[in-house]
Structures are given as C-alpha cells and as structure tokens.
Amino acid sequence: MRWPNRSLTLQLGALFACVAVTVFSAVGFYLYQALALQLLERDDAELVDRLAQVRHLLEETPNLTLIHSDPHRFLDAVDRRHGLLLVVRGSDGRVLMQNSDDPVLIRPEGRLPAGAIISEAMVQTAQLANGVPIRVISAMGQVGDTGASVRIMIARTAADRAVVLAAYRLKVLSAAIVGAALTALLGFWLVRQGLRRVKALAQQAREVTAHNLTARLDGALAPEELRTLATSFNEVFDRLEYSFNNLSQFADDLAHDLRTPLNNLMIQTEVMLSQPREPEEYQNLLASNYEEVGRLARMVESMLFLARADHDQIALATERLDARTELERIAEYFEGPASDAGVSFDITASGYVLADVHLLRRAVSNLVANAVRYTPRKGVISMEAIQSTDGTTISVSNPGAGIYEEHLPRLFDRFYRSDKSRSSTSSSAGLGLAIVKSIMLLHGGSASVTSTRHGATRFSLRFPTSSGADKQT
Fold first, then answer.
1. Segment 309-331 mean pLDDT
2. What is the pTM of this model?
3. pLDDT tens profile 135-168
4. Which terminus of the chain, N or C, has less C-beta within 10 A?
C-alpha cells in the first residue's frame, strides 16, 4: 500500500487509529465470547440444579395424580418468568404438567434413568416446535414409593441471555469506537510533539548554505533513533565544507596561475606592437610566447588528467615491472637537467613493482623533477625501491632547505606551493604532486612525504601487490 504525500503526523495518527480499532475489536470479541460462554455455563448449571430439585419433589410426591392436581410446588421450583420451561410426561407420553402454553418441546436425544447422576455435560441444544432455540436437559424421575417413573424436561430459552449479550455487544462496540478515536487523537498529539525535534533539525539543516558552511545539526536535540542520522548529516556537511573550500581555493589558484602567462602574452605582444621592430625582436617575442603557451598547454593537460582520474576514466595496464630498471631509466632521462643543476643520482632498488608503466614513470618523474629543482649543487638525489610482502615502496629523497611542517599536509593539493614567492617564476603549475596522488589512488596505493628543515625531504610511493587496476576490472 502506498501512502499519498500527506503529513507524516496524519499518517501516523491514522495508523494509531487502525491499530486501536483492531486491538479494541479483538479484545471486545474475546470478552464477548467469554461472556457468552460464561452465561451458557451458568444457564446449564441452573438447569441441572432445577432438574435435581424437581427430582427431589417427585420423590416426595405420593402418586401421579398429585402431580397434575397440585403442580404449584413444581412451578415454584421452575419459574417461567426466568425463562425456564418445565414439562413432565408420564411413561405413556401424556403431559402431566407444564409451566407454559408454548408449543411442546421437541424431544432431545437420550434419556437418563431415574437414579443416574446428572451434570452440565448432559445439557443439549434443541428447539421448540416453533423453531426457537433452547438449552434442554431430560431425565427420568421416581414418583414417591409407587415405583412409577416420569420423564422430566427442563429448558431455558436464550431470550434473556440474548438481551444481555446485545447490550454488552453495544457497549463493546461503543468502547472500541471511542477508544480508537481517543487513541488516534492522543497518537496524533504525541507524534506531533515528537516530530517537533525533527522539525528543529530540519530548520538547522536549512541554515547550512554556501555562505554558512560551518552550521551543524545539534544531535542533542534529536531523539535517540535520529541521533545517528544527525551525526551522519554533520559528517556530510564536513565533507561538503572541505570540498567547497577546496573548490573555491582551486578556482582562485587556477585563475591566478592562468592569469600570469596570459598577462605575459598580452603585455609582451602589446609592447612589441606599440612600434615597428626588427625581425629578430619579433622572433624573440614568438619564442617567449611559445614558452608561455607551452606552459598553458601543460597546465590544461594536467587538469584534464586530474579530471579523468577523479572520474575513474583512466584505464590501467598493470604489469610486473623491475623496480631497478625503471628507476635507472628515469634517472637517465633526467641526466641532462641534473647535470645542469650540478646534482647526481644514487639508486638502490630490488624486487618488482605492480603498476602501469606509463603512470609509474610519470609519478616518479614528477618527484625527481622537484628534487632536481630544489637540490643544491653537488647534492645527491637518492632513489630507492624496497619490496615487502604487501607491496613495493619507491622513495625519492634529496637534501635542501626542507619544507616547513605546516605545509606537509597540503603538499599534494592542487595548485598548492609551499614557497609562494616561486609561484610566478616557476615553470611548475602546482599540479605535479596532485597528479602523483591521483596516480597512486588509481593504483590503490598512497603517497606520503617527510621533511626536516635544512635536511632531507623524502617522498614515498607505496604500490600494493593488488593494484587498483584489479579492482576496476
């Protein structure tokens, strides 16, 4: 059953009413049946008592003639006004006495001897000649010392019992209706009171906007059942605030980093076009512009890579690679820049690494490029690969000024630079370490950094034995 989009309070109030009607009806039906059974048992017990009393009176009667001529003793014992019917027949079937003018009783099956013990179990259901249902008991009785036997039938109509049950049935029905109505109203009020705290939480949730991301739900106001939900919403708000702040910072950094090369292009071109120049000056301008355009192209390519990585649109071709061979190949690629910077490489590697060869080289190359850029002359860049039972860790470390501790948690954020003074002069767009982090997440691994001031800075990449490519496939 699908509820319409109505108030939850009304729906719960209606459910309370339905439950109340069902419960009251079930209890009322049970009580009604119990009362009907109790009345029936009481009537049967009275029939047995009356039959025993009539038997005793017959034993005190000298002969059959007195039964017909003096019936008052028997009629007093079986009062017609209480719905009791009495018929006494002789052995020949002739009616000796009866206490009403109603049609003669239809005889029930069975007949107890005069000396038999009677009980409620012997009471039977029968009917009058006109079809009215009755409860009747029949037994033989001994008349004095004459040895003559008569048949006694005592019955009770259900009229008075039906009146009692009808009145009781009306009371039960009325109680069920009134009880259901009161329960529904009380349930509606209780639900409304209980949902006030839910509405308070909803009002708090409305206060969380793009301009007020610090607002949180007060879990203490929530019922115990909704406290976990409030906590979960607060965790969602925390993630949204973090993501929104990162997005805002990303937009600011992106605008700043795009503005620098664009301004260089515009200013240099404007100056060059302000007056006629020699061909060599135009060539120098084109060379400078080409460098700035290349910087923009690398920035856009890096941003596209990060966007594809965020949406799992990069397929990994994972393979088993020799760690030392890969590190030596990367060191050979940076041999020229390293020589110009006056630094050298020291490689210590063993075992293998499970990774995509192109992404592995890109991640390690980004670390090596940073190391070459910040290592002082005559410094040595260490490249290590250590294999363990659960994966392989590749590390790139270099001496230098080091990185302040407060910068370490954000080094892998996009466009983040620990040295702000280099933002306009460095060829890096601040996306290299963010790309490294994305590559490691694609592999199901992790990237970390440790650094000491005027000491060594160490970047570590941990590749698990079961890569992210396995999870994707």
1. 84
2. 0.49
3. 888 888 888 877 788 888 888 877 777 788 888 8
4. N
Of 155, 161, 151, 163, the C-alpha closest to 84 is: 155
pLDDT of residue 459: 95
Shared-domain flag, residues 334 and 449: yes
* Domain of residue 452, CATH code: 3.30.565.10
Domain that residue 135 falls in: 8-164
Write the pLDDT tens digit of every residue in 341-384.
Answer: 999 999 999 899 999 898 899 899 999 999 999 999 999 999 99
Q: How many domains does the chain have?
A: 3
Residue 413 contacts by C-beta under 8 Å, 6 or more apart in sequence? 246, 249, 434
Residues 330 and 354 in one domain: yes
Judge if 235 and 121 occupy the same domain: no
In this structure, the answer to whether residues 288 and 336 fall within a common structural domain is no
Please check whether residues 274 and 319 belong to one and the same domain. Answer: no
Identify residue 465 by its one-letter amino acid code.
T
Distance CA 144, CA 348 (A): 130
Does residue 294 sit in the same domain as residue 328? no
Nearest Cα residue to 210 out of 183, 179, 237: 237
Residues 376 and 336 in one domain: yes
Tokens at residue 442, please? 């694609």
Sequence-distant contacts of 306-313: CB under 8 A, at least 24 apart: 306/414, 306/431, 306/434, 306/435, 306/438, 309/435, 309/438, 309/439, 309/441, 309/442, 310/438, 312/442, 312/472
Query: Domain with 69 in it: what CATH number?
Result: 3.30.450
Residue whose token pair is 């038999």: 116
User: Which whole-number Å values give the CA distances from 404 to 99, 310, 370, 450, in the listed order?
Assistant: 117, 29, 16, 10
CB 473 within 8 A of CB 467: no
Give the residue carrying structure tokens 């014992």.
77
- Angle of helix 323-333 versus helix 357-374 axis, rounded to 10: 50
Does any domain span residue 175?
no
- Between CA 435 and CA 358 the distance in angstroms is 13
b/e per residue, 82-98, with b = 16+ CB within 10 A?
ebbbbbbbbeeeeebbb
Whether residue 345 contacts residue 338, with contact meaning beta carbons closer than 8 Å, is answered with yes
pLDDT tens for 87-119 read 888 877 788 888 876 655 555 555 667 667 777
